[in-house]
Every structure is written in C-alpha cells, then in structure tokens.
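pinned: reference chain
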Amino acid sequence: MKKALIIVDVQNDFCDGGALAVPGANEVIPYINLLMEENEYDQIVLTQDWHPADHKSFASNNGRNVGESIILNGVPQFMWPDHCIQGTFGAEFHKDLNRDKVTHIIQKGKNTEIDSYSGFQDNNHFMKTGLDDFLKYHEIQLLEVVGLAMDYCVKFTCTDAVANGYITCLHFNGTKAVNVKPENGRDAIYDMIQKGITVLG
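pinned: its structure tokens
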C-alpha cells in the first residue's frame, strides 16, 4: 500500500513569534523531521497557506476585530489577523523543517473571497487544490497527517482525506491546536475519531 505524509502549514506565521502563532508549534518540527528520516513515504506533500493581502478572512479587511465572525459567501468565517500573505516571510516554511524529501507543494487560500483550511479544497467546497488528483495519480491509499493547526487546517485536511477515500492517520505528537477556545483541540480530536481518522501517539 502506497503512503504519503501530508505536512500542513508549518509556516513562520503559525510558529513562535508569528502573526498567528500556534502555542507550542515549534515543538512539532523535530518530530516531523524524525518521521521523514525514519519512515519511507512514497510522497511527502507540504500544504502552504498563501493568501493575497486583501483576503476576506482577515479582520483588517472587513473593519472587524480578530475573533469576530462574519458570513462570507454563505459560510461562517472567523476573523483572523493578517497572516501567510503571498511572498512574505510569514508565509515561508519554517527554516527548521527539513524539506529534502518533499515531493510536492500545495498552496491554498489564494482566492480572496473564500478561505481554505483543508489541503484538499476551499471552505465552500467550490474549488479543489489539486491534492486529491496528485495523490490518486501516484496511487496513494494511506495518508499520515501532521502540522498546524490541529483544530483548523489539520482537522479539515484529515476529514476531507477520509471523504476522498484515503485511510487517514493523524500523528498527535506532530500537531498543535491554536485553541481559540480552550476545548477546541480536544473537540477536534473527538470529531476526527468519529469520522474514522486514526490518531497515533
């Protein structure tokens, strides 16, 4: 069975000192590097938040405060600080992440009007990123997922992976939650388990 490692959004803005830093984010990077060193993956894919500066998920572009919610194109949208803007240092992958064995990069969140937590598609399920096509082309059946943040982009990448027919495993030691609310990370784990995702470690 062919397997791939999906590394979600290990970018400067989500790491220590970033615009949208996930608590403990830097702690997962050595674990992710060790996975790549000790395991044989047929493909290793990075996802990358890649927002235009005028993205509608940014509070600053809506005259709102960070933490508020609006309805954006028919779906609820949390208001985030500006982050992972195309071409900026914040959008770059963290320097400590070993990318020697990476075979593919998927950029998401490029549409100004719609956010994209999942590595597979936008939040409205209108536009695919090309990840599913890439994995199917390479006959991947098993996905192991790590990265940031567990309660948003990692969770939605995992649930979409299951929906697309992949056996899906989350490495608990390879992810951290942003925890806008203290229970978000816990609830994300429960939700993923209920959807058939195996949580390892």
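why pinned: The longest helix spans residues 150-163. The chain has four helices and eight strands.
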